[in-house]
Design a protein that fits this description.
Blueprint: E1 5-9, H1 33-43, E2 49-53, H2 58-64, E3 75-79, H3 100-106, E4 115-119, E5 122-123, H4 128-137, E6 145-152, E7 163-170, E8 176-188, E9 191-196, E10 203-205, E11 210-218, H5 221-235, H6 247-256, E12 261-266, E13 272-273, H7 280-292
Parallel strand pairs: 1-2, 1-4, 2-3, 6-12
Antiparallel strand pairs: 4-11, 5-13, 6-11, 7-8, 7-11, 8-9, 9-10
Helix pairs in contact: 3-5
């Protein structure tokens, strides 16, 4: 069995954040959040690291990230551009690529085994890669049995505004039965208020629900499934202006069509991220605390 790869989605600018949050230093020696994800994955026995970036960010990304990662770690990067890997030509009457499922498809040319996909601007905790490694090691080649790390929703919210999350339900055997994508989740007067994608009326959630943080364990078959989904998605002219195709929604569709299973792997690993500029001091202090506890060396890459 090949060592699993780690695919890091780093093509987004983060409009709510107000800058290129993926490459803002959070460590004492210029480390960015994704440095710690790479460190944890390699420590857990992952092999190749693949970054998905935009062409116009290449120079900054190399300087801030790639040039500092030790040479013994196998690293590649691919570009997510508007017309990257599309199954057929479409009118390009937009500037933004087609979402997280499209981003993962762009990595297909350099992945030939099991892999984990994560966001660049989320810290997933020091133990989550160990939590999912047994599942990855047992994945059947060419199979559609996937998995995700399940975080508690209330532990993934921001104090400074709303976030988008996939709220999950699983059956008694731990298999995912549905992912409902909420585009706005925030705490209002002590309650978790959520607005479902495409639905105007808000809902009240408990906060104890498993949440998808775009931490998915996938295999090479998934690239073909993305391509098939994109064919239908791009054939609908209503999707061509601004609509995106999200990983959680695609996986939910595959589950409903019985074309895939997704095991929810609970994790107690810490999570924090930088959705808003105001999150930055909290994230930096959190890494200082982890370094003080001995979870990470400082500098990270020495």
């Amino acid at each position: 069995m090949k060592k699993p790869a780690l695919v890091i989605m780093a093509a987004g600018m983060g409009s709510r954040y107000g800058g290129i949050k993926q490459i803002e230093p959070v460590g004492e020696f210029g480390e960015v959040i994704l440095d710690y994800s790479v460190y944890d994955a390699v420590k857990a026995g992952f092999g190749k690291i693949v970054f998905i970036i935009r062409k116009d960010l290449e120079k900054d990304f190399k300087e801030a990230v790639l040039n500092r990662i030790p040479s013994h770690i196998e690293v590649e990067y691919v570009f997510q551009e508007l017309n990257s890997e599309l199954p057929f030509e479409v009118p390009l009457n937009r500037t933004k690529p087609w979402g997280t499922a499209h981003a993962v498809l762009c990595a297909g040319r350099v992945i030939d085994g099991p892999f984990v996909v994560i966001n660049a601007d989320d810290y997933y905790g020091s133990t989550v890669f160990d939590d999912v490694k047994p599942f990855l090691d047992g994945m059947e080649e060419g199979g559609s049995e996937y998995a995700m790390a399940g975080y508690t929703l209330s532990n993934t919210l921001s104090e400074h505004g709303y976030v988008s999350r996939g709220v999950c339900k699983a059956d008694s055997s731990g298999l995912l039965t549905s992912i409902i994508e909420y585009e706005k989740i925030e705490v209002v007067d002590g309650k978790v208020v959520a607005k479902r994608l495409g639905v105007e009326a808000p809902e009240i959630l408990t906060g104890s629900e498993p949440a998808s943080m775009n931490f998915f364990c996938l295999g090479p078959l998934f690239f073909g499934q993305i391509r098939e989904a994109l064919k239908g998605f791009l054939s609908n002219s209503e999707n061509l202006a601004k609509t995106e195709i999200y990983l959680p929604i695609l996986l939910d569709e595959l589950i409903n069509k019985e074309e895939a299973t997704v095991k929810v792997i609970p994790t107690d690993s810490d999570w924090f991220g930088m959705t808003y500029k105001e999150d930055s001091p909290i994230v930096k202090q959190s890494f200082k605390n982890l370094i003080k506890k001995g979870v990470y060396p400082s500098p990270l890459w020495s």
